[in-house]
Automatic annotation (TrEMBL), chains A, B, C, D:
This is Uricase. Pfam families: Uricase. Belongs to the uricase family. The gene is pucL. Its EC number is 1.7.3.3. PANTHER family: URICASE (PTHR42874). NCBIfam families: urate_oxi. It catalyses: urate + O2 + H2O = 5-hydroxyisourate + H2O2. InterPro entries: Uricase. The keyword Nuclease does not apply. Gene3D superfamilies: Urate Oxidase. It comes from Planomonospora alba. It comes from the Bacteria.
Length: 295, 295, 295, 295
């Protein structure tokens, strides 16, 4: 039996980096988890344990910290691109780099009193959602950038229906014209080019996702998903593809009749498992090929 | 050998309740996890399995939903008190009730455009912190209320020192006059009376905790803890005791010297474990006895 | 308003220690998470930030590692006692030490072939349960030891009933004479003395807990809890108190009638939340006072 | 701008099924989490919310329970295939089904005494690892089966080296000829055919993974990964591809020199993050195309 080595990569996962910028007495904060993964001439290390082509994951971690100092961290996409390019450019045996970053958001603790100056170096975690990016760069010089967010948890108390579906021998669900629709948005969007205004793009995509979720009278979560993706593509020419994964966090109306009470859409049980899971991609018709962008 | 039954309780944990109020077309949302626990005449059930004195945990769950409908949910402390009193008053075998509630915060999704009206039924999860309460009520009619919060994550990039500590044979830590101080605040505060303006109290306690964390030039996390507790007691006469648990989430300055780089308080490694853990209580001198308030 | 400092402690939580013993070519493994917490003369540090009485949590961590080397780690209770006594004995300002340890179990990877010798240095994690201990030692020389385990997950597919309970206006639960009973055992037991054969004691207590769970025809989870505690006390004179927390992991029989199928105790939905939670203590009649043993 | 719908699927995730077989008084137990996902004629539901082609996720859940009753659950791969085929065969609008199952392992609670009969209906969770499978079936009749496991946590205390790697400006890691090698194995393996003895195959693959991990003197984790994959392929002709993801759970030797102690491979700090992550595939040279098997 002949055996061959298939696709492989290695790297350092979840390097936790907090970067402070001291602008006089006013400090700024970036809080990241950085995962790097490299591919290239890796036959020897797999077959014989010869590490001559291996850049240790410890060195990858050091590089994250060193570049955070030497070039700073602004938008995570730009920092990921810089890391990926550094790795591919620095060693001939490294032919491809993949960098994934999560960013946790902070805001300034409010002033002690109205009229007091802004806090200069005190912060509080803001929001549950996490901003993400996934960057690939290879020896041919091609870079791809996917931006995203996860755990943006949203809920409509009305404006959601679900009926007209297939009924078979295992159907017990009743159609409804008014239900709670709740999900924790996992969205990722592919940029046409690695040169983009990532800060502005992120802010606007996020706004559009929220707007489409809230503004769509929904006959199914798929319809909402598509509306969210379409809204992003319609308004953001720098983006050519959106992928969404929307868990349907079921909120079941509690039957209060046994207690002599009605329940006109007021008391719900929020279930954990199982949950619906709706996944889909929306693209512009002329989206370039994705290559390894989503790997 | 003679064996006796010691302290015991039983209940339904983490009943997930979402309560919607429909004020015309404008909806309001409460998102809770409710845990009830009852004590009383429980010898028989333990010794022989005789359930005659047992109110099933399933019934406790039903009661949470029914009271959410019939009386509504406003402040979690008031809802917990209503539940606890209901249980103790409804059955002679139930002599004590303990109700613990967590509340997850939501805010309205912003309007589609400046000038557009407020969203009426669309929400997004706000913040990582969770509001909590713990209520006890017993057959003598005594009620105690502890309010609180957890996962209020805060960080000062400067204004924190640590030196002058004991040095022994196992000491390697260097003193510092400038470090990052970060923690996820777990705070609980005991009310003098079960009749309180819990909404206003919560808002002000939270503000004071943040203010004291940000406003204290810290020589140790204990000093910050005490300042936080003292500030709450100083400004809120309805509260007689504050308990705080502050994990010291270490941010280690990365040594960049091997790479020819300095690191003047800019690049940190955020460590997971181990972490410092500072716990303490601060009381008013005339605080009444706590009884079972903290159990 | 006069404010006073209440109970407090500080320490290093979750120091992850893996201790290898190299007995010639045969290696042995201990995998621990150690949490230390000290109390004593802590007024100054809280009120003014004066750290003169503070043994830094970093030093506590170092001490864990140094003692692991110098005295070795055998039973976690003995190691915790050694740590607690070291802290209290080493510094006059430390008046009380609390040490909590979790131990993760490993077993040897089986031999490559029947008849091949035992693996000498290769291990695989065994079981989901975690062995625990909680030790207190104070300046008066008193030590207390509580041993325990958590996440010992067990399930009886029959031999469990639940009926004869209170019925009120919020009752919908039907009585049953045959249900699944499942729980993740959290058990802790207090030793009469800090000098004990902790290895043998642990093995036998665990065996008795399993035996009582499996061997009790249960009319309520409280009855099972009591039987578990009583069995431990009946057979282990070194133990004077057992505390148990048993989540009732509900397994609901799925209604298959809509699909023309019966369901004679064969197909269950395992629910996450809410869950019942049964907590109780069982003591010998002559158990000495617990002091701070459970804090 | 023209927008198109890309790949999509929808289903019910993490349906928790416990299946009991009552063989006279002797009971058997299967504990599963089942996730189903369907694809097909889904344009309308995305674009207009027309659900005519949608089999609700609630119905998918019901089907899991109904088939668990009517056909029973033996090997998870066979159950997943039955589900996938049912969905594709039952509705013309469903063109592809993906079923993922996790199985949690249980063993019988040991007899009360040596010589006592085997427990008939009492179980305890065994091991931390989870058995998995991923099955695809489409309207052309093609089925693919990937079996696997996760969280098989293993550790070698010696027999692992790491040296000869690239050194660059960011390298600080020292080469070593003796280190701890620990990982939580995530392995998945693709079957040549959907007709296989999945029980025997799983048992042997697991044995080979452990054997290769323990039996390989490792110069790098990649070498160990490849040896594990190769061993599976060498011994199991029913398998054509193995994919492994091995987090390198770093165990750092603690520097005890400041305390006057040596540390000859005895005291380690087990780190959480960051961690190395080594991922790779090993295939037989004549492995058929994977199609959507890994999606």
């Amino acid at each position: 039996m002949a055996v061959v080595l298939g696709p492989n990569r290695y790297g350092k996962a979840e390097t936790r980096l907090v970067r402070v910028v001291r602008d006089g007495g006013v400090h700024h904060l970036k809080d990241l988890s950085v995962s790097t993964a490299l591919s290239g001439d890796m036959e020897a290390v797999h077959l014989t344990g010869d590490n001559a082509a291996v850049l240790p994951t410890d060195t990858q971690k050091n590089t994250v910290y060193a570049l955070a100092r030497s070039r700073g961290v602004d938008q995570i996409e730009d920092f990921a691109l810089a890391l990926a390019r550094h790795f591919v450019d620095s060693q001939p045996t490294i032919r491809h780099a993949r960098v994934e970053i999560e960013e946790y958001s902070w805001e300034r603790i409010p002033p002690a009193a109205p009229g007091a100056g802004e806090r200069r170096h005190s912060f509080v975690r803001a929001g549950t959602e996490v901003r993400t990016c996934l960057v690939h760069h290879d020896e041919s010089g091609r870079s791809t950038v996917v931006s995203g967010l996860r755990d943006l948890t949203v809920l409509n108390t009305t404006g959601s229906e679900f009926h007209g579906f297939i009924r078979d021998a295992y159907t017990t669900l009743e159609p409804t014209t008014d239900r709670v629709l709740a999900t924790a948005v996992r969205a990722r969007w592919r940029h046409v080019s690695p040169d983009s205004d990532f800060a502005g793009s992120y802010r606007e995509v996020r706004r559009r996702l929220l707007e489409a979720f809230a503004g769509t009278h929904s006959l199914s979560l798929q319809q909402t998903l598509y509306a969210m993706g379409r809204s992003v593509l319609a308004g953001r020419p720098e983006i050519c593809e959106v992928r969404l994964a929307l868990p349907n966090r079921h909120h079941f109306l509690v039957d209060l009749e046994p207690f002599g009470l009605d329940n006109p859409g007021e008391v719900y049980f929020a279930a954990d498992r199982p949950y619906g899971l709706i996944e889909g991609a929306v693209l512009t018709e002329d989206a370039p090929g994705a290559g390894s962008a989503w790997d």
